[in-house]
Amino acid sequence: MASQGLTYEGCNFFRQRLILSTLSGKRVKIRNIRSKDDNPGLRDFEASFIRLLDKITNGSRIEINQTGTVLFYQPGLLYGGSVEHECNTQRSVGYYLEPLIMLAPFMKNSLRAVLKGVTNDQKDPSVDLLKLTSVPLMKKFGIDGEGLEIKVTKRGMAPGGGGEVLFTCPVKRTIRPVQLSDPGKIKRIRGTAYSVRVSPQMANRIVDSARSILNKFIPDIYIYTDHMKGANSGKSPGFGLTLVAETLNGTFLAAEMVSPPQGQEPMLPEDLGKACAKLLLEEVYRGGCVDSNNQSLALLYMTLGQQDVSKILLGPLSPYTIEFLRHVRDFFQIMFKIETKSPDEEESKGGEKVLMTCVGAGYTNISKTIK
Hints:
Layout: E1 6-9, H1 14-24, E2 28-31, H2 44-56, E3 57-58, E4 61-64, E5 71-74, E6 77-78, E7 80-86, H3 93-103, E8 109-117, H4 127-140, E9 149-154, E10 163-169, E11 179-180, E12 186-196, H5 201-214, E13 221-228, E14 238-247, E15 252-258, H6 269-286, H7 295-303, E16 309-314, H8 319-332, E17 337-341, E18 353-359
Parallel strand pairs: 1-2, 7-8, 11-16, 12-13
Antiparallel strand pairs: 2-5, 3-6, 4-5, 8-10, 9-10, 12-14, 14-15, 16-18, 17-18
Helix pairs in contact: 1-8, 5-6, 7-8
């Protein structure tokens, strides 16, 4: 494929560009990566992400200049298979898992990835969050089967890490179009409060304080406590909470909070539980059929769906999602029709909603042979 490559500037939206480049087969060149910085070039966590891409593709060409400020990437075929990757601890495993979730269905072989590093930190969506929201979303697009699973075998908090996550995903020849325009009412709230290398009591305190807020809204609440011990608890102490609200139509809206890493201003478990509950209510207020963390994942699957109309109702678009739409236009020449829905209509409450419509690119997994 001698298609014309694309050129970008700067380090922002680094993963988006490489993911879309890999899927579209278009070469990409990124210049001026932190060129004005005292410490110019790619960061270790970005280099680690490039190595991960190299492991799951076959025949990718990656060139980086000496200062690390220019990256050239010519994608190979998505190969998949069994991969083990030591994620850089500057970012959590979620930073590496998100792109894998986007790419996994389109590989030649089912992916079985073991990622090691920080499972929960304050920057990236945690593994728990992706497990509770991205997996049900994938199922809506017909990506399902026995093999779809995200499993936390060891937890690792920032800054030390030491966690381990297993992600397995079957390959799909095509992605089915979706029509998701009614999120439905919230029927229950589930969650996980976890604690490692601190008193197991911490998790119970988080649960009580989160419930003190959520009980006012809905009776069906169950928050699991997860206390990992010994070798499974990673290298740093910490605790956190992931909450997910499920609607009658199978929409999952989630929020999470993690205690600050060791050495920073500590946070009481009570405060964390309350703050997280409020974040969840905010996510519910924003609403839509996909929570704000998974907007770009849903839009990507819509873009790559069969040549049919897909519709999805989202809450207000995050800046990350807006940039993602621009990149989708660059790589796939696909534009979305965006209609804003005001919350003043009878039923709908909450924030401004956007109805996103597009016709899929009819992307078929070329490396998946027809049996």
